[in-house]
Write a structure and sequence with these properties.
The structure holds 2 protein chains of 2 kinds. By secondary structure, chain A is mainly α. Chain A has a domain of 219 residues. Chain A contains 13 helices and 2 strands; from the N terminus they run H-H-H-H-H-E-H-H-H-H-E-H-H-H-H. Chain B has a domain of 197 residues. The radius of gyration of chain B is 19 Å and the shape is globular. In chain B, helix 2 packs across helix 8. The relative contact order of chain B is 0.20. In chain B, a hairpin with a 5-residue loop joins strand 1 and strand 2. By secondary structure, chain B is mostly helical. The longest helix of chain B has 32 residues. The chains are: A mainly alpha, B mainly alpha. The interface between A and B is large, with 42 and 45 residues. Chain B: One of its GO terms (biological process) is amino acid transport. Chain B: It is a multi-pass membrane protein. Chain B: GO terms for molecular function: transmembrane transporter activity. Chain B: Its main location: membrane. Chain B: InterPro entries: ABC_transp_permease, BCAA_transport_permease.
């Protein structure tokens, strides 16, 4: 068994033990972090593997969250087996539609245009009856997992919900790992390193990018769905550009193009938020300062640190 | 819509569009010349408005506040370029996004620490505090006309600087091919610093001018930033005149959208942008 796999399994074992501590505060905090980790992995498919820097990924997160809230009846539980695929499907469809526009652009344009479309989605939920205004909507009853009277697990139970989220994280991780090994995934990585070459090899890169964009939207939708279930309410803030910026931050913190890194990025981000948050109500000042310093002094993100240490040990301090 | 209210909405569109042009022109130049995406550009608008608030309360006049505030913004811009942005030119867009996103958090929190989170109003200078009677019930505030006039003067001055002066020639050349400009022995770093400082000052001035009518409030920069992005996308990166046309398009679309389609008000601008993307993904005025 190689060391990397062992580390991943140890990490998983630790996550499996969290609810056993009985600390409901930490269980909820880590559940929230796991949701963000799924969100970060979905964005990493675009940013890290396909080379598409989307600054509007919160839109698909928010669309799925609103879809759950709108599709659930007001005072009874919706079926999990209906609302979850529906919410994820809707966010993937929205991403497919937006992708038709934004993928016509490249580089700086792409960053700005994805941001602008996310802002459009924000206003759709903020201004129209669809979203219930700036106060948002409550999801009064969590979806039920029962199938014809049999209840395999209960999302109202904090421990069950935690393990459900952890299972989704593992599934998304394995799914993305599988996708990236497939010919489709290899094409995406090829597009990142040189799109023109992929085109001249005969790949219709637009279709691949569109598929990746819709897929990332759908996976981001899983995170949005889980978020709505955990917190029980949705607001337009879920689609705000701060949310898009934060998830991009997680991906970059973890080092792009590295799924475990994206998960680690989500943990580091939540950790900073919690730690700085207890120091001062102006914690964003420290957060912003850390970000600025990280870009100036730490190119490549956290994931580049082990490599640097290794190089400086091997090279004995000589230049790279 | 009768003629008087149509006239009012047209004047409002012009005023809003011209004000946005002040913000977007700096943004598009920084994109075009330095190849930098600057998310913190909206913060300069916010900083301008807060400077106007602080300086007006100390000096007692908005006019003095602007006279003091613009040079401060220029110095601040030059300092930021020296301390931070000059390290970003060779980095990829993602790192630029990250650093400037971090800057927004820093600026907003500093604003919160130094001035607080309350909404502040600034009085319209007494000289311009009248309104022009358009019909028996409708009138138009003079101050909005003053804003439009100042913006027009600045746009003309910008045109003169960019098209007619040596500095403008260097800016245009840098926009076109910065390696060649460097090879010709022109100090491109100096041009970067001047352009960046100019962009900061224009955005801050827009914030100062707008502060009496929009009031001064937290996060006022982010909305302006995103609208400026839309303008740059519509006008084409690096094109100042594209930004002017696009800013006016956005000004009219937003103002008339609010009047004619109130339930879609927030979205009209973005729908226009989506249309432009389908038609010309590189922006209306991008050549070649």
């Amino acid at each position: 068994m190689n060391a990397q796999l062992l580390l991943k399994l140890v990490g998983l074992a630790i996550l499996l033990c969290v609810p056993l501590t009985g600390e409901s505060f930490y269980t909820e905090l880590i559940a929230k972090t796991l949701v963000l980790a799924i969100f970060a992995m979905s964005l990493d498919l675009l940013v890290g593997f396909t080379g598409l820097v989307s600054f509007g990924h919160a839109a698909y997160f928010g669309v799925a969250a609103y879809a759950v809230a709108q599709l659930s009846p007001k005072y009874e539980a919706a079926s999990l087996w209906f609302v979850m695929p529906a919410a994820v499907g809707i966010s993937a469809l929205v991403a497919l539609f937006v992708g038709l526009f934004v993928l016509r652009t490249k580089g700086i344009y792409f960053i700005m245009v994805t941001l602008a479309f996310a802002q459009l989605a924000f206003f759709v939920f903020h201004d129209t009856p669809l979203g219930g205004g700036s106060d948002g909507i409550y999801l009064n009853v969590k979806p039920t997992a029962s199938i014809a009277g049999w209840m395999p697990f209960d999302l109202d139970n904090q421990t069950h919900l935690y393990y459900f989220i952890l299972a989704m994280l593992v599934l998304v991780y394995l799914f993305l790992g599988r996708i990236l090994q497939s010919p489709f995934g290899r094409v995406l990585v090829g597009i990142k390193s040189n799109e023109h070459r992929m085109q001249s090899m005969g790949y219709l890169t637009f279709r691949y990018k569109l598929a990746a964009f819709a897929l990332a939207g759908g996976l981001g939708g899983i995170a949005g769905f889980l978020y709505a279930v955990v917190f029980g309410f949705v607001t337009p803030e879920l689609l705000s550009w701060h949310q898009s910026g934060n998830v991009l931050l997680m991906v970059i913190l973890g080092g792009m193009g590295n799924l475990v890194g994206a998960i680690a990025g989500a943990f580091v981000f939540t950790g900073m938020q919690e730690v700085f948050g207890t120091w001062s109500k102006h914690w964003q000042l420290i957060m912003g300062g850390v970000i600025v310093a990280a870009v100036l002094f730490l190119p490549g993100g956290l994931a580049a640190i082990p490599g640097r240490i290794k190089r400086s040990l091997q090279g004995g301090g000589s230049n790279e | 819509m009768d003629f008087a209210s149509f006239l009012i909405q047209t004047l409002n569109s012009l005023q809003y569009g011209l004000l946005l042009f002040l913000v977007a022109s700096g943004l598009t130049l920084v994109f075009g010349i330095m190849g930098i995406i600057n998310l913190a550009h909206g913060s300069f608008y916010m900083i301008g408005a807060y400077l106007a608030f602080v300086l007006t309360s100390t000096t007692g006049s908005l006019f003095m506040a602007i006279l003091l505030g613009v040079p401060l913004a220029l110095i601040f811009g030059a300092f930021l370029e020296w301390a931070l942005f000059s390290h970003l030119y060779k980095r990829d867009h993602l790192e630029q996004v990250l650093l400037t996103y971090g800057l927004i958090l820093v600026f907003e929190e500093l604003r919160s620490l130094l001035v607080g989170d309350e909404v502040h109003g600034i009085d319209i200078p007494a000289m311009f505090n009248g309104s022009i009677q358009l019909s028996e019930v409708l009138s138009y505030p003079v101050y909005r006309l003053v804003i439009s006039a100042v913006c027009v003067v600045l746009a003309v001055a910008l045109y003169f600087v960019i098209q007619r002066t040596r500095l403008g020639m260097m800016i245009r050349a840098g926009n076109h091919d910065r390696t060649m400009v460097e090879a010709l022995g022109i100090n491109i770093n100096m041009i970067y610093r001047v352009v960046f400082a100019l962009g900061v000052a224009l955005a801050a001035l827009a914030g100062m001018l707008a502060s009496p009518i929009s009031s001064v409030f937290p996060n006022m920069g982010s909305q302006v930033l995103i609208i400026s992005f839309v303008i740059v996308v519509i006008g084409g990166i690096g094109s100042v005149w594209g930004a002017l046309a696009a800013a006016l398009i956005v000004g009219f679309a937003d103002t008339f959208g609010k009047v004619l389609l109130p339930e879609l008000s927030g979205m009209v601008v973005y729908i226009v942008m989506a249309g432009v993307l389908l038609w010309r993904p590189e922006g209306i005025f991008k050549k070649g």
